[in-house]
Amino acid sequence: MLKFVFIALYVVLMLVIGFVSMKKASTLQDFFLGGRKMGPWVSAFAYGTTYFSAVLFIGYAGKIGWVFGLSSIWIGIGNAILGSLLAWIVLAKKTRNMTHRLDASTMPEFFEKRYNSRALKIFSALIIFIFLVPYSASVYAGLSYLFKSVFQIEYVYCMLFMAILTAIYLVLGGYMATVMTDFIQGIIMIVGILLMIGYVVVNPSVGGLTEGIQRLSQIPNDGIRLVSFFGGSNWFGLLSLIVLTSFGSWGLPQMVHKFYAIKDEKSIFKATIVSTGFAMLIASGAYFVGAFGRLYLNNTIPMVNGKQNFDMIMPEILKIALPEAVLIVILLLVLSASMSTLASIVLTSSSAIAIDLVQGYLFPNMKKDKVMLLMRILCLVFIIFSFIVAYKPNAILALMSFSWGTVAGAFIGPFIYGLYWKGTTQLGAWAGMVGGFLTSIILAIQSNMNASQAPMFGMIAMIVSIIAVPVVSVITPKFSHTHISEVFNTQIRKNSSISLDIES
Questions:
Q1: pLDDT, position 1
Q2: Buried b / exposed e across 441-463, counting CB within 10 Å, b at 16+?
Q3: How far apart are alpha carbons 208 and 219 in whole angstroms?
Q4: Are 403 and 458 in contact (CB under 8 A)?
Q5: Distance CA 358, CA 23 (A)
Q6: Could you tell me if 250 and 407 are in contact, meaning their C-beta atoms sit under 8 angstroms apart?
Q7: Which helix (H) or strand (E) is 451 found in, with range?
Q8: Dihedral, CA atoms, 328, 288, 88, 254, nearest 10 degrees?
Q9: pLDDT tops 50 at residue 490
Q10: CA distances from 450 to 228, 279, 453, 455 (A)
């Protein structure tokens, strides 16, 4: 009974936030960017809760902790230092200033105005739509495993619950609703991970930190590797995961979007500190807990329908280690992480269609109130679509494992060089985007969509993108001085119309 009371209170809180936020989302900029007035705390929590979803807590933490043991904590540290701290230092100020200057609200719109290419905007918008929406379907799965384990509720009903709740507050309040809920969800995640770490370590299955490490080291065949500093002989696999999950966030539009909306440069420093601390606790804590999965499950991977299922490792750990009241908090933790990630992905995907394709290409004179209505409709459509993809397993489900690497591989080079290097050319941006995109796709096809190799493929795709941009830019026509001065000018422009030419 207590479980349902807590869930009901959580639902009521999310709905109240949605209705309150609806009054503040009166314009398109309010709906998609919160009026570009987001403070440091809500911006930092929005970044962190979007970064980590049920995919981390249920999927990654369980499987990677099982394979790499305690060295998997390096992934969490990498996420905090490289994916949060360095990302905010390198990208936040530049992104905020340049998107203000160019009056760009989305990443495809940034690519169009930075590189004077409508085709580049359309191509990047299609990448977002094709690869982020299927990725959002994976968010359902991790949550559903835990819900089924705790409540004994079927998978489909768990997914439906999250989809409806997310749809209501997102469609009503847009970005304002997501950051308000992200702040509350972030607090729940902090409390939940601290409780999770404490109960898991002191449980007799582990027997305390020192005893737990000793027991891991004695596991036949794998013991030494599980307590080694860098994952033993499989250090390259660990490195691939660190690079993909840390630097990959630099090229993901739903992550970069948080930099667009922060209110001023003074807020960036505080947001950087808060975001880094949040990532260090949440990510490292999740992998730390997952590392002890073998001790809880007697070194035997759970079986579902006659097959080994790594996604059941974390739910089984939590069922054994946590009392009911704490388990409810953890359930809310995973629910919070999942809903915030889903909301950000859906909002980004809907903007790719409504702003970048419909208004930006098909109907350029479309009024902003109609664009906002279209975005609301598309948010609902995309949530429904991701629900269907998750419910009907097919080839697209395998594609989810490659979505992160494909999107990041396509965008990371053109985006970073676009912010910092005046010598980046239009063809250089195309080379980075197409090169990274095709690298990920070709490697995925050649491996028959082998999900275990996805981190390595994503890392290679990002490297290709980062190398291709400067190599091609050096030998291709440069932009005019007018273009460069307008893009990098320190004066914030209010007119979004820019006419730029490329010098032959």
A1: 63
A2: bebbeeeebeeebbbbbbbbbbb
A3: 17
A4: no
A5: 25
A6: no
A7: none
A8: -50
A9: no
A10: 27, 28, 6, 10
Per the CB < 8 A criterion, the answer to whether 337 and 278 are in contact is: no
Beta-carbon contacts of residue 10 (< 8 Å; ≥ 6 apart): 332, 335
pLDDT score for 144 = 67
What pLDDT is stored for residue 35 in this prediction? 64
Query: Residue 284: what residue type?
Result: S
What does the DSSP assignment read for 397-437? Answer: HHHHHHHHHHHHHHHHHHHHHHHH-TT--HHHHHHHHHHHH
CA-closest candidate to residue 343, choices 257, 417, 244, 231: 257
How far apart, in whole angstroms, are the C-alpha atoms of residue 169 and residue 175? Answer: 10
| DSSP structure string for 193-255 | HHHHHHHHHHSTTT-SHHHHHHHHHTSTTTHHHHTSSS-GGGHHHHHHHHHHHHHGGGG-HHH
Q: Are 415 and 114 in contact (CB under 8 A)?
A: no
- Token reading at 404: 């992160």
**β partners of residue 38:** 262
pLDDT by residue (tens digit) across 460-474?
A: 999 999 999 999 999
Torsion of CA 119, 122, 128, 129, to 10 degrees: -150
430 vs 352, which has greater pLDDT?
Answer: 430
Supply the Cα-derived Rg of the chain in whole angstroms.
22
Residue 234, amino acid: N
Token look-up 């460069």 returns 484
Please name each of the domains of the chain with its CATH number. Answer: 2-488 (1.20.1730.10)
C-alpha distances in angstroms, 285 versus 191, 232, 419?
12, 21, 33
Q: What is the pLDDT of residue 232?
A: 67
N-to-C CA span, the chain: 72
In the numeric block, which tokens belong to residue 477? 């026509």
| Contacts made by residues 498-504, CB under 8 angstroms, sequence distance 24+ | 498/102, 498/113, 498/116, 500/116, 501/116, 502/116, 502/425, 502/426, 502/477, 502/478, 503/477, 503/478, 503/479, 504/477
Q: What's the whole-model pTM score?
A: 0.85
Share of the chain above pLDDT 70, in %: 88
Find the angle CA(324)-CA(327)-CA(329) to the nearest 5 degrees: 120
Q: What angle do CA 341, 91, 334 make, to 5 degrees?
A: 20
DSSP codes of every residue in 343-368? HHHHHHHHHIIIIIIIIIII-TT--H
d(CA 258, CA 6): 30
Half-sphere exposure of 382 (CA within 13 A, CB side): 31
Cα–Cα–Cα angle for 232, 241, 56, nearest 5°?
115
